[in-house]
TrEMBL record:
Pfam family of the protein (one): Rieske
UniProt cross-references to PROSITE patterns, sorted A to Z: RIESKE
Identification of the protein by name: Rieske family ferredoxin
UniProt keyword Metal-binding present: yes
Keyword tags: 2Fe-2S, Iron, Iron-sulfur, Metal-binding
Organism: Salibaculum griseiflavum
Amino acid sequence: MTQWIDACATDEIDEEDLVRFDHDGRTFAIYHSPDGEFFCTDGLCTHEQVHLEDGLVMEYEIECPKHNATFDYRTGEAKRAPACVNLNTYRTKVENGRVLIEV
């Protein structure tokens, strides 16, 4: 059964940046896109399970801080090696200045 989880305030994430959110033994990354939308993916790179929180966010991509793999955070698609497995993505919504994710 899925549920909506309150992850963070919208003003906690600068545009073209992300925050890490840990919940129930899992790590997520929540992104603020240049057009003002919010997105959520798994928080660990699929290549070597490195936290993405220190990665570089540019436009609609996150670059892993360890081996520079990139992903489109809107779809989770692995865009550059060494990652070849996509990130899981999660629906988001904004209510009362808070970002909620569906897990």
